[in-house]
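Example S7 (structure tokens).
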């Protein structure tokens, strides 16, 4: 395993017997790959864990046991990753089984991930019966094989989890909390991909009313819309399902009951027929794929009667429960960056492309802004041109080299004048900032200027934009003191320790 791809494993559990199968499969995979098994943070999320977990059948597993007292899978995963000190955290469910090559495959998945890759998903296989058609519950579980970002097998960078605060514990069950985190990772400007490792998710036994109990997730759909807006389903590849039909059937049932109580027999008959037809159509859609044995038909018929009102009531309850939800900050229309000392190491009056060196973490920070769809441009004072120390052509050559190293920018805006010229463009005058905003077609008041000295943030303030100071050794203490205010304060200038932290201020949605 590459040292750069070190990872820990977090497994939330409620004490199911399948846990032992998972742990044994991890041991077998490590033996197959001839590698040391990484630390496994096993988080017991049962409300009453006094009996403890039965790990007697598990040999040579480096488990660290944590307890969360039944606060839900989001809280359990958070408790696990907060104990980790590795570059990556791999989340597994307690009812999956990893392949024999999983240990070597996950090392390859994570070692090959570029810095801007925030998470890598495993490939999920759901075995279905070979001797008959799958039933409704089995078909539903099979959908996990094409689901995006599910934590049955999902790895995230520890640094990204820390930036975002991990899983949102407003999600009380194993539903949508994984999609919520994934969308926030994407919002943070990171990428997500699917790796090559494979994990099997068996279909676990389910009771008669299991599909009815799942309807609680409709309330979580409301929370997703509150947090991520109307387009969350498209981004998360999550279908609306039959909510419109369920609302219709539930409304018809309610009107039928009320009309019957008021002895409005004709209205009750019409809406009763509508409810019965909708319920029958829903039941047939679930029965038709098979298997059409008596027990399955009876289960589908009975649950198809209760699912529409349950789904609708949970959805309405979610609307009430999640009336006020804190969403993320407004994104800037564009980010304008100083050049020397901000994105590249400051070499005074540099005209040699070979002397260009990026600031640590600059490529990652810029890629995150690009991935978030935010235009980026450079605003730079280059008084060496006026002083005859460098030429405009040399500045262009240096800028071209910067693009080779750090990727493309949406514009370069340079002031060639000396400090005494009294021009409109030299920072801290607002000219370059206004020019960049106009060229990019955005309101300057919605722009952010990032730089390492007071003239950068001064130009932002003069133009009506927001400034973020990322100090270096050349930054004056007074400039740092002036910018050191909480990020929540609507100030003209705030402080960030690194360029990546500045991007965090612009993009991150941290929830507790």
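Recovered sequence:
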């Amino acid at each position: 395993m590459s040292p750069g791809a070190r990872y820990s494993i977090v497994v939330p559990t409620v004490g199911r017997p399948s846990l032992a199968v998972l742990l044994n499969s991890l041991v077998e995979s490590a033996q197959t790959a001839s590698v040391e098994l990484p630390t496994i943070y096993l988080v017991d999320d049962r409300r009453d864990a006094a009996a403890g977990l039965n790990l007697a059948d598990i040999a040579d597993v480096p488990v660290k046991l944590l307890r969360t007292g039944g606060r839900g899978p989001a809280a359990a995963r958070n408790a696990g990753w907060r104990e980790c000190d590795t570059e990556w955290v791999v989340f597994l469910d307690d009812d999956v089984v990893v392949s024999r090559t999983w240990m070597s495959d996950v090392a390859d998945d994570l070692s090959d991930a570029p810095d801007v890759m925030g998470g890598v998903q495993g490939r999920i296989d759901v075995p279905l019966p070979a001797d008959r058609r799958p039933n409704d519950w089995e078909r539903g579980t099979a959908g996990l094989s094409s689901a995006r970002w599910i934590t049955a097998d999902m790895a995230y960078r520890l640094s990204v989890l820390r930036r975002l605060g991990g899983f949102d514990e407003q999600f009380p069950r194993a539903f949508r909390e994984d999609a919520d985190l994934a969308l926030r990772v994407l919002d943070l400007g990171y990428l997500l991909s699917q790796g090559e490792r494979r994990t099997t998710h068996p279909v676990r036994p389910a009771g008669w009313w299991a599909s009815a109990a799942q309807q609680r997730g409709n309330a979580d759909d409301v929370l997703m819309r509150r947090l991520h807006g109307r387009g969350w389903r498209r981004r998360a590849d999550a279908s609306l399902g039959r909510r419109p039909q369920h609302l219709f059937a539930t409304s018809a049932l309610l009107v039928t009951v009320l009309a019957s109580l008021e002895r409005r027999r004709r209205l009750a008959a019409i809406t009763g027929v509508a409810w019965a037809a909708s319920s029958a159509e829903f039941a047939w859609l679930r029965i038709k794929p098979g298997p059409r044995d008596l027990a399955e038909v009876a289960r589908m018929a009975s649950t198809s009667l209760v699912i529409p009102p349950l789904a609708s009531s949970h959805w309405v309850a979610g609307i009430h429960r999640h009336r006020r939800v804190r969403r993320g900050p407004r994104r800037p229309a564009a980010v304008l960056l100083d050049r020397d000392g901000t994105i590249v190491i400051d070499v005074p009056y540099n005209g040699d492309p070979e002397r260009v060196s990026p600031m640590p973490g600059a490529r990652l920070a810029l890629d995150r802004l690009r991935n978030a769809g935010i235009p980026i441009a450079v605003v730079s004072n280059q008084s060496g041109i006026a002083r005859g120390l460098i030429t405009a052509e040399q500045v262009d050559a240096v800028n071209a080299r910067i693009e080779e190293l750090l990727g493309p920018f949406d514009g370069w805006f340079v002031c060639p004048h000396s400090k005494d010229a009294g021009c409109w463009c030299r920072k801290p005058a607002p000219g370059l900032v206004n020019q960049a905003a106009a060229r990019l077609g955005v309101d300057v008041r919605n722009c952010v200027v990032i730089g390492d000295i007071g003239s950068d943030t001064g130009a932002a303030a003069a133009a009506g934009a927001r400034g973020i100071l990322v100090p270096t050794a050349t930054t004056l203490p007074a400039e740092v003191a002036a910018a050191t205010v909480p990020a929540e304060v609507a100030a003209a200038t705030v402080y960030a320790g690194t360029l990546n932290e500045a991007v965090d201020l612009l993009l991150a949605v941290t929830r507790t």
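Notes on this example. The first helix runs from residue 18 to 33.
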